[in-house]
Amino acid sequence: MQKDLGASADRIMIFGKEANLRFPSACGTWLVNGTFKVSPSLFDQVFGIHGYRIAVYRKLHSLPEVLHQYSNDPEFAHKIHQLYALAFIPPDDVQLVYDVLMDEPFFVVDGIQTLLVEFTTYFELT
């Protein structure tokens, strides 16, 4: 636990690793989710903050050839940003929109498809 803001009925407790608490400040996009349905019985609500863009950024940086193309080709970078934008699609539509993106000429060209196979697989698995 990082912080306990009192012992009242409106108590707020903050959990997370110290290093993970810095991630959202480095993210251009925060995804938040408040839920009552799956919170442990000890809590009324669980509210999560996720730095989606930092996870994608890290994956991008783990693939030097993809990072080089991303850094040097504005059209390539724009297409990668379209994948980032999946975070703003309603959850029930994400797979459909992802499939539409993957069918665009940019993503099916042999050289690009081969270059991006690990990156796009990452999106499919997360």
Based on CA inertia axes, which overall geometry fits? elongated
The Rg value, from CA coordinates, equals 18 Å
Point out poorly predicted stretches.
none
Q: How would you describe the oligomerization state of the chains in this entry?
A: single chain
Describe this entry's structure for a reader:
The chain has 2 domains: 48 residues, no CATH class; 74 residues, no CATH class. The mean pLDDT is 81. The strands form 2 sheets. It has a two-stranded antiparallel sheet with strand order 1-2. It is 54% helix and 11% strand. It is elongated. By secondary structure, the chain is mostly helical.
List its traits.
126 residues, two-stranded antiparallel ribbon, elongated, mainly alpha, 2 domains, 7 helices
Quick take:
With 126 residues, the protein is mainly α.
Topology:
Layout: E1 3-4, E2 13-14, H1 18-26, E3 31-35, E4 46-50, H2 52-61, H3 64-72, H4 74-84, H5 94-102, H6 105-108, H7 110-125
Antiparallel strand pairs: 1-2, 3-4
Helix pairs in contact: 3-4
